Amino acid sequence: MALSYEEKLALIKINSFSFLRADWLGRLLEIFSSPCEILKQKPERLSEEGKISLETASKFLETASRLDAEAELEKTDKVNGKIYFKGEEGYPEELLSIKEPPLVLYVRGVLPAENSANAAMVGTRKITPYGRRAASKLAEDLALAGVILVSGLARGVDTAVHSAAVRNGKPTLALIGTGIGRCYPAENRELARGILDTGGAIISELPFDAPPLAQHFPRRNRLIAGLSKLVVVVEGEVKSGALITAKMALEQGIDVLAVPGPIDSPQSAGTNKLIKEGAGMVLSAADIIDCLPLNLKLGLNTKKLYNEEKPPLEELSGPELSVVEAIGSGSVSTDDLALALNMPISELSGVLFSLEVSGVISCADGKYSRRKF
Q1: Mean pLDDT value across residues 111-135
Q2: What gap in Å lies between CA 305 and CA 241, rounded to an integer?
Q3: pLDDT one-digit tens code per residue, 4-16
């Protein structure tokens, strides 16, 4: 149901409270029916009805009353941005399923289409030369293949990831720990402009001018994971923001991959630990693409990534080529291939038989994979 203008203003005000919790806000909305009514209450009643402390209720109402919601709309519009409201058209569907979806989302730039191939790449701010090479190479290959890279615009790995996409004229999403009216760190202002110029977006749930406070960044990480089909950690210490993002991704049922690193490097301790505990190991961009849902892989340009592992594809017919590209360098069942290609099982079985006889693919445990050449 569409929100009224007054309800939108009230939600912008409510959202300004940094310690907002979805459970008690849900109770308040259920009790008072609308965000406007919540803001009309006395602290004592909010405390009693919402099962929150009187101190929290008082601070919540005080913070909300200080924010000029109409000014938020005006400032956002002035930078060609937009504020999306939970449940309304344009709000990313992926975020509705995460823990504590943001009430409002401030966006500069262009949000990707639904079911786009988004992959998060995150890591340490204390990037090593090895980490920079790995992040840049992986990000460039993924961007050129058509994957939309998601990161946090921080120093280090995030900067390397966004820069690779921008350098190649490809869109990338930056989930930031400030309002969209600020750039942190300041040295990434030019990069932020590049993100907007290449069709990407800068996204935040925080008020327009919110500063880079420490508590903003861990909450921001759930949005990085939520907007992505998988999360790749390039470098990160055992206790780092990148590992927090990985943990949030796993809690949301999102695959986590990691780039291995030197065993004596603190910056690789976290990634090596993730791999030891079962995260997928990344040695190339193809390893990342193989973990994307099959229907998303079909729309990507992966020919260059798999050239070293396959015979010349120009020798294959149309259906055979489609099946081989859908298999990629992973292993795929007949049912998954039929669903992804929208091909009848009877027709697909004939194509698979032909490819297997010619030695292009092999079958093990009911799944097909491409032979290495």
Answers
A1: 94
A2: 30
A3: 999 999 999 999 9
